[in-house]
Design goal:
single chain; 3-stranded antiparallel beta sheet; 6 helices; about 200 residues; mainly alpha
Length: about 200
């Protein structure tokens, strides 16, 4: 091959390469623009600052949803979660999802009430070993076989829309007092006693 022929081939290749680049440049900006318009870009501030809720609490991550505000300060251990699931199973395992959630809320409402113990364990075991424990099923807690439905009810109480007001702290088949909030399934839910009033 002569140098002139090599030069001609090289010029032809460079021209073809330039044409390919020109064609790609014509279509690529639209594709890039379309992709950029549909992409959210996190700024360093967004990446470093934790999100907060409307109550000023640090929002939990996607793996841990934001707690119902009234239960935000309630600490619950794995052992307490298992105990609560067992009580929800024993007290309301044959009730609707709403009824099971309401039973879980009664326990949590007691934890946040100044009239009851301040932990899930202590609320569940209040009066255990006496003639009238707060939860009549506490003595059978070791026999419970909670299912996912009871854990779902607890999650719904802690992270979902509340069924009961925060001051509903009793449930029974016939009603604990005359301050009845309402009935869900077989259970009558009642507000706290108001001492000095007829109950």
């Amino acid at each position: 091959m002569t140098k002139e022929f090599q030069y001609t081939v090289l010029c032809a290749l460079i021209g073809a390469l330039a044409a390919i680049i020109a064609v790609r440049a014509t279509y690529q900006p639209e594709q890039i623009t379309g992709k950029l318009e549909n992409t959210e870009i996190s700024t360093p501030a967004q990446l470093s600052e934790p999100a907060t809720t409307e109550y000023g609490q640090v929002a939990e991550t996607e793996d841990k949803p934001v707690r119902v505000p009234r239960y935000a300060a309630v600490e619950i251990t794995d052992a307490e979660l298992e105990e609560l699931a067992a009580i929800v199973y024993l007290e309301s395992g044959n009730q609707s999802a709403e009824g099971q959630q309401a039973v879980a809320e009664v326990v949590l409402n007691r934890v946040i009430s100044p009239d009851f113990p301040g932990t899930v364990h202590d609320v569940l075991h209040q009066g255990a070993g006496t003639r009238v424990p707060q939860f009549s099923t506490i003595n059978r807690i070791g026999t419970a076989k909670p299912t996912q439905a009871q854990y779902d009810a607890i999650d719904a109480a802690m992270y979902g829309d509340s069924v009961l007001p925060a001051d509903v702290v009793f449930f029974s088949r016939s009603g604990e007092n005359d301050r009845v909030w309402g009935k869900i399934g077989d259970h009558v839910f009642c507000y706290a006693y108001q001492w000095g009033d007829a109950v």
